[in-house]
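Dear Dr. H.,

I hope your travels went smoothly. While you were away I took the liberty of generating a structure for the chain from your last submission, since the lab meeting agenda had it listed for discussion. I wanted you to have the full record in hand beforehand rather than looking at slides cold. The sequence, exactly as received, is reproduced here:
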Amino acid sequence: PSRYGNGYRSNSGSGTYVKSRTYRKSRTYRKSRNYRKSRTYRKSRNYRKSRNYRKSRNYGGSRNYRKSRNYRKYGTYRKFGNYVKSGNYVNSGSYVNSGSYVKSENILQSSAVSNSGVIPAVSTPATHQFTYGTTATLSCMVLASPVATSVSWSKYNSQNQLVAIDMSTNNNLKYQGSTVGNPSLTILNTVSGDAGRYVCSAKNAVGTGSSGTTTLKITGALPKVTIPQPAYSISIGNQITLGCAVSATPKETAVFWTRQYPNAGETTISKVNSAKYLGQTVSSPSLIILNTDFNDIANYRCYATNAVGTSSSQPTSLNVLGSIPEVVIPLNQYSVDYGSSATIPCTVTANPTHTSVQWKIIVNGQEQNVDMQNDKYSGGTVNSPSLVIANTQHGDETFYICTASNSVGEGRSNQTFLDVGEKVCKLYCSNGGNLNEVGQCVCVGGWTGTNCDGQIHMRLFWAIAAQKS
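The corresponding predicted structure, in token form, is as follows:
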């Protein structure tokens, strides 16, 4: 009960009670119009939840309002910096009409927003990167209401001027796409000249919208070709491999070799002559030379080609080692007794190794080959080059030459002369007698005499050593 009594409280309209603190704390007061107009009510949570608060000016400046859906729909939100930076603002009519939009890189030609829609919104990635010689696709996305009726691409030239790309049928081997259904631009077989800045544009009934610039980067270079050695050497007649290594992006498509003689130009080595050369392919770029000879002494280069172009290695030299055999007969003359066996020595030094030996004699001033099939002769081989002549006759007395051949050629010795002695008279010792070192018979068994036959006489005979009787 109040100090004013029950009757007084019931009379809630009395001025004294309405103004009292007790009344302002009561439920009756909180339900009254005066409470809703008071500052206490406006600071309470109930007020912030009420429709009156949302209609008030205070609600328009509050954080709760800025988080609400209504805030984003009202003009107040569109005046804030956050809205200007947001995607909703960029796509809105206010942004299209603003000075920022007209000055941005997103627009080449701008027209006012009509009541029927907006110009197309066109976007592309900032960069594209592709390998030289491949197919490059520059992505482009178009959002338009009303729908886009055409799509085009342009590229900045060296003078920083935007030039439209020719998409006519005459250029369809280079470019594809750039249509409403496929707005992206496809560049076939890219080259270094395709690198640069591009712009995608789309047109509808309202106007033309363009993307920002997208940069196309083309990667790739000429092949890197290396030969591991600056020089090679090989013995004549052997096989040699001239190494070559190729590193290329894009991948090499061809490999070939050239040869250059002193004071002459480069010539391409034939790939058809497989009996002489092997290799020179993408999978096996090294050059294999079969059965080398002195004609192979030259400078060589390895070349490789890819979509960018052709490059070469540093030159390498090939030296072929070898010479004709060196053939030596130690003396200018040899002597032999008539009917005896004669040996004419011969030595051969050869690199590469000699493959044959041939003896020659001078007959009436002309060279003739010694017939090694005759039993009279032996030797004259690679392993035993000296010549052996059995039962020498006066007809064997002449000049002799030893020759040897290898893959380089034939080597010859100097001439040597064979001197065959005269026939000699020999003492014959009978009855088992032996001829001593001084040419006298030493008799045995009681025999006496010059020839051990008991008589004082000498029987002479002519004999040819080693001659068959």
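Two observations you may find useful: The first helix runs from residue 6 to 10. Confidence is low (pLDDT under 50) at residues 1-12, 71-114, 456-469.

With kind regards,
E. W.
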